[in-house]
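Bumping my old thread because nobody answered last time. Still need a sequence for this structure:
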């Protein structure tokens, strides 16, 4: 509760945290809309393959032009301005950069950027949660070995869920379940970028105004992103995946304590200590009032009659037994909140969530029947969708992770819903992200107890 005062101290001593951003899309733009109002932070550089797009986004979010006209990184640091470039490697290699925010949304590229930043002894805030789901345990281990911090990005749902889980455990509660909300119907799993806006509840005009990417938003809708984010939560908190993937039970916020308890006592969970996603639509597709669609939640147990009496005395919403209670945030604010991660990493030396083991994975499954020779188009596209599984199950199947299911050509026919395996695709074993992932798989497959 003293991040702001610590940032003020950095500002007063003319010793700001120097931040570099790689990838200036929607998430980074939201951060950029806030950071110039935050003391003790200097965005010294922004690297993007399309610098013109960076300039357009900076103008969109209200930056004065003189603030992003630095001619070099040296000029930026001298003038407290920002250098915009397409040379991410030069940005990362500068010894004056403290923290790198990876926000490209491209898993293979993000892995390369993050590893390079860690090797250069930079702390990393990873917005590209797809890269965390792909090989986060490996990245976190590399960061630890190099004495730097690797962190999930606050504002995105996984870090917020980690925060709630940490709160519950630090307060002495047993965490029964945790997760996020979602607008879900089973047929959304076949949604494509052509159908996304109608399902999502936005008009094409609203999407264009916000600079929203239909493929990215379709990854939310079709269940890929909920699976990816659930993997990040499992690997960071020790919670585990349901054995048959996410079930998306429907309910309001007030229903969560009854829903998110084990089936043996009337809930929807396969077991204690599980992740799950709550749908904001009932089985007919009708919106449920007081929903958790954009939010996150944790369910925890009051295991004595005294604690249950305390719940009742202070109006805590519980299940019908009085034993299970929940805490939630109804909204998450994406990049508007990522400054919490930057401050936590920079002035406290703490992540806002990071993997501690390989417990869950997101497998690429066929979105429709696929033919030999088809080229996979990745998360949110037309060919594959993400399925949550335990790491053990994924390793046993030899499953192809969703984060790498882009640009690879199929060797075998796959039917709709069937997981893809490494044996189903042609791939370059020298690709950096593939090498890292295969090394991580080998490490955990040789362990008798993955994670």
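Sorry it took so long. Here it is:
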């Amino acid at each position: 509760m003293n991040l702001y005062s610590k940032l003020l101290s950095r500002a007063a001593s003319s010793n700001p945290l120097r931040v570099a951003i790689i990838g200036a899309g929607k998430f980074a733009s939201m951060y950029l809309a806030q950071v110039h109002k935050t003391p003790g932070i200097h965005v010294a550089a922004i690297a993007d393959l399309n610098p013109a797009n960076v300039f357009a986004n900076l103008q969109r979010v209200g930056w004065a032009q003189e603030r992003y006209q630095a001619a070099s990184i040296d000029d930026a640091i001298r003038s407290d301005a920002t250098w915009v470039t397409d040379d991410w490697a030069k940005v990362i290699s500068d010894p004056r950069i403290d923290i790198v925010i990876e926000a490209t949304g491209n898993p293979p590229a993000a892995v390369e950027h993050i590893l390079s930043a860690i090797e250069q002894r930079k702390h990393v805030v990873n917005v590209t949660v797809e890269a965390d789901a792909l090989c986060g345990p490996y990245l976190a281990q590399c960061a630890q070995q190099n004495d730097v911090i690797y962190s999930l990005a606050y504002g995105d749902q996984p870090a917020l869920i980690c925060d709630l889980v940490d709160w519950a455990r630090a307060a002495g509660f047993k965490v029964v379940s945790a997760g996020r909300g979602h607008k879900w119907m089973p047929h959304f799993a076949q949604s494509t970028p052509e159908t996304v806006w109608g399902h999502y509840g936005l008009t094409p005009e609203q999407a264009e105004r916000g600079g929203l990417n239909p493929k990215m938003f379709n990854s939310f809708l079709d269940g890929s992103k909920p699976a990816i984010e659930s993997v990040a939560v499992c690997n960071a908190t020790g919670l585990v995946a349901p054995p048959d993937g996410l079930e998306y039970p429907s309910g309001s916020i007030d229903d969560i304590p009854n829903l998110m308890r084990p089936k043996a006592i009337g809930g929807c969970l396969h077991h204690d200590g599980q992740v799950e996603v709550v749908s904001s639509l009932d089985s007919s597709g009708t919106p449920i009032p007081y929903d958790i669609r954009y939010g996150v939640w944790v369910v925890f147990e009051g295991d004595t009659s005294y604690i249950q009496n305390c719940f009742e005395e202070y109006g805590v919403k519980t299940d019908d037994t009085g034993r299970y209670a929940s805490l939630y945030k109804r909204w998450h604010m994406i990049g508007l909140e990522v400054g919490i991660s930057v401050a936590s990493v920079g002035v406290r030396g703490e992540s806002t969530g990071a993997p501690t083991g390989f417990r869950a994975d997101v497998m690429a499954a066929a979105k429709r029947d696929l033919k030999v020779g088809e080229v996979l188009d990745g998360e949110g596209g037309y060919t594959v969708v993400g399925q949550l599984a335990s790491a053990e199950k994924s390793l046993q199947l030899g499953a192809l992770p969703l984060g790498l299911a882009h640009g690879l050509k199929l060797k075998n026919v796959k039917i709709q819903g069937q997981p893809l395996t490494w044996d189903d695709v042609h791939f370059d074993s020298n690709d950096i992200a593939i090498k890292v992932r295969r090394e991580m798989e080998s490490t955990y497959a040789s362990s008798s107890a993955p994670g």
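The mean pLDDT is 96. Let me know if any region looks off to you.
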